[in-house]
Amino acid sequence: MQCHHGARPVQTPVIRRLHKERGITLIELIVTIVLLGIVSVTIGVFLMPAFTANQALERRAGLVDAAESSLRRMARDIRIALPNSVRISPTANGFAIEMIPTAAGGKYCIAGLANCAGAAQLLDMTANDASFDILGCFRNPAFILANGTPAYRLVIGDLDGSVYAVPGAQAVISPAGRNIGVIVQPAGVCGVGASRHRITISGGGHRFLNASVNERLYAIQVAAVPISYVCNTATGTLRRYAGYGLPRATQPTNEVAAPLSTAPSIALVSNNINRCGVLGDTDSVRATGIVTLQLGLAGTNETIELLHQVQLDNSL
Fold this sequence. Notes:
Helix content: 10-25%
Radius of gyration: 38 Å
Number of helices: 3
Oligomer: single chain
Number of strands: 16
Structural class: alpha+beta
Strand order of the largest sheet: 1-2-11-12-13
Order of helices and strands: HEEEEHEEEEEEEEEEHEE
Shape: elongated
């Protein structure tokens, strides 16, 4: 073996790879466009109808909720109305329904009922009576706390809506301005033992026109009655008017005229009303004790209509 001194070692050449920048090819662009088209068609055919249907469902649900809320609001007042106090008038653009809600009620004492006896306990229907008992106790604390004030009036035996008429010496409603007392008799806690509430009427008392079939007495709050709901499809509104006072021989229906335009309490119950009505009339309600309300609302490309029956709880 021979050694060659000073010879250079053999070097392996370095291969350099050149990375060249390049753009999108026509094929890649076409594929991208096709894929975007498929996605767009998928969204349009499958997703958009579902999205649109969901939006429509939400709009209808909102209308139904508004209609149900309005019907429930009316039903609360109708349900506790004085017997025969509901009055209905159709109008050119809807309806007006009037009523007198009760604040408290009880069964008054007559001879032979429970342990009722004596002039102080029994209600005398033949003369002015200033003091008589009810069986048990009133439940409305506001009525009890108003003891000895003219904030309430008493109604007994209204057979035909006479509560709205101008009261005379003998009427179904006690005179305005008389102090109504609510006291426990005998003294103590009402409902404990034989105690119950006694009613007193100032100014010599009052002689009620009619006896009640079921010996029922009702108290109404002077400042809160009567109440009217007026539905007007021309303005798309349902409004509640309250506290415009008695007597009221004719049912008011005009929203822009007194007494409704000057009622102490005016509230917008609902808007977007496109249809409303009350099935039946005043006489049919008095005969059946049922009010059937119809209410329709309209929104963006959506309309709904609901029917609601209300049973009057109070009886003569």
